[in-house]
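Pilot study result, target chain (284 residues):
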Amino acid sequence: MDWIFRTTENHVKVRAHIYNLEDTMNKFRRFPKSRNIAASLLCIGVLCAALYEVDSLRAQSSGTAAALSDEALVAEYRRVEVASVSDALEQLTGKRMYMTHRMQPIFTTKFAGVARTVQLKKDEGNRDPTALNGMLEAIDQGSTDSVYVMTVEDGENIAGMGGLMGTAMAARGYAGAVIDGGVRDVAYLRKIGFPVYAKGIVPSTSVHHYRFAGSQGPVVCDGVTVNAGDIVAADSDGVVVVPKARAYDVLTLAQQMDFKEHSMYPVIEQMKSIVEAVKKFGRL
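Predicted structure:
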């Protein structure tokens, strides 16, 4: 077994591989310049790799908005609060993009989806059996995550939709409906769990009083311009509309606001001071 060990100058036996390692290290000491050059090259390599990684991350970040699908975008909007989305919109666009207190849900709900717009115009006393066909066809053209956004001209006391239309939307996977007008068959809509925001609950009908005026064009719903493809988000605080072109930027800022606000709750409870919490987080 003596071959495993090597006798040192002090006649002490140590394991040969340890001694050999020391010999190897001593060899490097004989070439300090080479070692310094190697270390410098290594540092330059690490620095170049880091800079490349930063550039790659920047490129990925700039391309994220384009790469994020409508489905993924909608899923993220379902996780943020409408109040944060509204605040983010105001900061980024300088515009009010939320609907008024008159737009109320038929039950407590939260949803987000892609706007599918429809307009009804007054045509009092018409006997045209096809007057509203376009409205029904527009429903059948929607799909999962669609939000039916309808404007009914002077229609606060006219039901723009009811149980039949709600059933069709639910069957096609719509996220919900927002009606600038009234809604009826509320008991049934609640039964099937289809969320609707409207300006009131009324028993009236649009048949013989209105005519389909177009779909997938821009509409003004409770004072807010909505284009087909915009993101519509709703919860207990109300309804907000996000222009499609700004959807990613608004989402990112809204998520940051949500995080800050939810981080503040325990701090306020602990410090018993909202003033100090606002100073700490810069969010109100």
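One observation from the pilot: The radius of gyration is 32 Å. A full batch analysis is planned for the follow-on phase.
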